[in-house]
Amino acid sequence: MLNSSLNDLNYDTSFATGNLSTLDDHDRSINIQQQLHWAAAVLQLIQLYYTPVLVILGSIGNIISVFVFFNTKLRKQSSSYYLAALAISDTGFLITQFISWLNLVDLPLFKKSGYCQMTIYTSHKKVKDCLTMTGEITLRSEVLPVGGINEKILAAKRVGMKEIILSSKNKKDVQAIKAIYRENLIFHYVDSVDQVYQLALQENKIANAKFWDGNLAEAITGQ
To answer: Any long-range contacts for 154-158 (C-beta under 8 Å, 24+ apart)?
Structure first.
């Protein structure tokens, strides 16, 4: 009986120790989360005030640098043009940082309705009929290959597409498809977005171009 009581006591002690260990791990996890939260809040606060100061001072410094390189005796040195170009490109980088900062202060510039429509409206460029494209576009304007080319080509042909733009690295995938499925289709292989623009956009502009107000039925019927 004494041994049984001792065993029960040891079990209770080990159970209590396990619970304490679990609680310690839980508290440690909460402390780490709190530290990460505070660190993120501090970094966001720094970004909130540091970014506009960096953009303003950096832009002023770059403008002064360009003025000095082009309007003083330094303009006679070839290196001045290189340094001035660096200052101009750095100003462009600062502008992109400022645009990102606007999202932080709840002013998402390029998410406002009308910017995309304004770009299309000012260009008035017409996209070629019966043309489609598949591929992934990188931030460097590169067109990367994708999978499922067989299914995509069949789907495009089924809906009446006549020309298809793909990445040049997908050419081998297209050639592997039976010729009967490639009949009456024109394939364009590209490596950059500039090539896509040249193939897709036509010189003639859209007559009576107007903004789209989001009414899909009206856009389809033209009424």
So the answer is: 154/181, 156/132, 156/185, 157/181, 157/184, 157/185
At 185, is the pLDDT very low, low, confident or very high (cuts 50, 70, 90)?
very high
Task: Quick: pLDDT tens for 80-94.
Answer: 778 888 888 888 888
- Per-residue tokens: 191: 């490596």
DSSP type of residue 129: T
| 150/59 same-domain check | no
* CA–CA separation, 124 and 118 (whole Å): 10
* 128 and 188 inside one domain: yes
Q: Return the ∠ at Cα 177 (arms to 171 and 181), rounded to 5°.
A: 115
Residue 166 has pLDDT above 50, yes or no: yes
Residue 139 CB: number of other CB atoms within 10 A?
A: 5
Domain, as residue range, for 133: 115-205
pLDDT for residue 152 is more than 60:
yes
User: Residues 87, 46: one domain?
Assistant: yes
Our count of domains for the chain comes to 2
Taking the C-alpha atoms of residue 166 and residue 148, their distance in angstroms, rounded to an integer, is 12
Query: For residue 130, what pLDDT band results from cuts at 50, 70 and 90?
Result: confident
